[in-house]
Amino acid sequence: MRIGLHALGIGTGANRDVIDAVARRAERRGFATLWSGEHVVMVDDQTSRYPYAADGKIAVPADADWLDPTITLSFAAAATSTIGLATGVSLLPEHNPVIMAKQLASLDRLSGGRLTAGVGIGWSREEFDALGVPFERRGARTARYVEAMRTLWRDDPASYTSEFVSFDAIRVRPAPVRSTIPIVVGGNSDSALKRVVDWADGWYGFNLDDVDAVADRMRTINELCSSAGRSTDQLSVAVALRSPSLADLEPLAALGVTELVIVDAPPADAADAVDWVDSLATEWIR
What is the CATH number of domain 2-284? Predict the structure, then answer.
């Protein structure tokens, strides 16, 4: 079981010195992946329901620093050489997919092919409204954006036509190191899992209650794969639990989970952040 760390880009994890310290120490201590999520916009009076908490409220204060994940991970990449990097997740329908394809490929190239693109469709209508992007049909928009990005990474020149994005005979360089970038879908709903099976390379389940909740979601993935004629072996599976324990590792592995992601906030001081990573590694890395 790989152990990932979701700690960079928000609050105390938005400090340059802390990013460097956490990234270097996490790599040295054997963490598999550094994850960094995204919100472009936060609002004080949120009416949209946050889907990863029972009360529907996001725990991150609206006035907290929240870095762009591709920029956060570029700094982490510069401080390291082997640890994986993952957006966890980027809200793809909020972005121009041609620009996003360029940014992700640039990060993948500069990191030596270490990037996984975690994407989600978003949940905050207020955020979409502020960006001038339709909230409706964001799932369909995301699917077409993924198709467009994969076309840009594969073909040179590239052409693509859909309802949401079209281009003809364009070159968007550089290409990713591995000719494409793995794309995993974040989200725990049936609709999110359908996206995983329909067009993704994996699933990032976030803030799930416990192993039983993961088992329920994995049953749904297995059923969808069976209906689609797809093998679950083709999918990577990373999950974050609300209160994980070492006792969860074996049953998670038996369910097909390939990475447990520890979600936490580092100390504000870089020296303390090194000790913090050490304590997590002592607990989790076997």
Answer: 3.20.20.30
